[in-house]
């Protein structure tokens, strides 16, 4: 780039200065001389030529005004300049940061993630030994017998429900029979006495209950021999007489007889026996009072 020589003129610059116009700073603190007079060298063509990019002077550095905060290391320049400008405008230290943050939305709080439960599909079933099954089965049998007397068939069903192997269950029940903790004959006799006394059931109804509990055949018939025909008829007559104590039973004979016969039939009594006992008891209770 060409420069001018001996263009000092009235500016007061030294003779022979070879400085293009762009090399002088813009603040006037240089060899310009009197600001109102234009030096001769400034009117030369070389003085108005553009400089090379690497030689061009940068913008003048400005000192931060009072109240501005300079950027810290690690923060972006745009954020620092925005906060500085807002702080300078408001005239209070640190107020620029607040005004900038007021316009931003806070992120919504994250909902806690629900932990997915892992399905235990890879676990193998626990296999016990016969000894361990026997210990578990003995505890089951003792709990069942403590609650109430039960037949062998009922106890076996309970053991199988608790996943006790069948051969272990049979061995346990045989052992309990040896020590008289399981006795189907005694259970059947006690069941017949209890159901006939407390519920007034006939032999046919009790026979069905024993069959449901795994006791039938000769063992069941032997237990039912405790109730003969005479005892059965006495029990049925007692049931009817207790029902006829209500005065409403004498208002409508047909309705009362139908209700009482149905009650005896549900308890296992034959229809012929039921009709005979009900009619005789109704006549004695209501027609006998009229006489």
Automatic annotation (TrEMBL):
Compartment(s) where it occurs, according to its Swiss-Prot or TrEMBL record: Cytoplasm
Domain RecX second three-helical: 183-224
Residues covered by region (Disordered): 1-123
Annotated protein name in UniProt: Regulatory protein RecX
InterPro entries assigned: RecX_HTH_1st (IPR053926), RecX_HTH_2nd (IPR053924), Regulatory_RecX (IPR003783), WH-like_DNA-bd_sf (IPR036388)
Comp. bias regions, Basic residues: 103-118
Low complexity bias (residue ranges): 39-53, 69-87
Record keywords, A-Z: Cytoplasm
Similarity comment: Belongs to the RecX family.
């Amino acid at each position: 780039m060409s420069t001018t020589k001996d263009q000092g003129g009235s500016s007061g610059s030294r003779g022979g200065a070879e400085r293009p116009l762009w090399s002088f700073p813009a603040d006037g603190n240089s060899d310009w001389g009197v600001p109102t007079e234009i030096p001769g060298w400034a009117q030369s063509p070389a003085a108005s030529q553009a400089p090379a990019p690497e030689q061009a002077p940068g913008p003048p550095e400005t000192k931060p005004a009072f109240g501005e905060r300079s950027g810290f290391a690690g923060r972006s320049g745009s954020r620092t300049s925005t906060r500085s400008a807002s702080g300078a405008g408001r005239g209070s230290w640190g107020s620029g940061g607040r005004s900038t943050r007021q316009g931003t939305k806070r992120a919504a709080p994250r909902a806690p993630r629900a932990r997915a439960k892992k399905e235990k599909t890879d676990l193998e079933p626990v296999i016990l030994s016969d000894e361990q099954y026997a210990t578990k089965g003995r505890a089951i049998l003792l709990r069942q017998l403590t609650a109430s007397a039960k037949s062998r068939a009922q106890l076996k069903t309970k053991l199988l429900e608790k996943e006790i192997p069948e051969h272990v269950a049979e061995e346990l029940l045989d052992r309990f029979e040896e020590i008289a903790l399981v006795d189907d004959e005694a259970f059947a006799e006690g069941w017949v006495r209890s159901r006939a006394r407390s519920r007034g059931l006939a032999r046919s109804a009790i026979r069905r209950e024993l069959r449901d509990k795994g006791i039938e055949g000769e063992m069941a018939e032997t237990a039912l021999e405790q109730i003969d025909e005479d005892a059965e008829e006495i029990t049925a007559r007692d049931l009817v007489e207790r029902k006829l104590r209500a005065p409403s039973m004498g208002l409508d004979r047909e309705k009362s007889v139908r209700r009482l016969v149905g009650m005896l039939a549900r308890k296992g009594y034959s229809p012929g026996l039921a009709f005979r006992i009900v009619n005789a008891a109704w006549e004695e209770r209501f027609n006998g009072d009229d006489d």
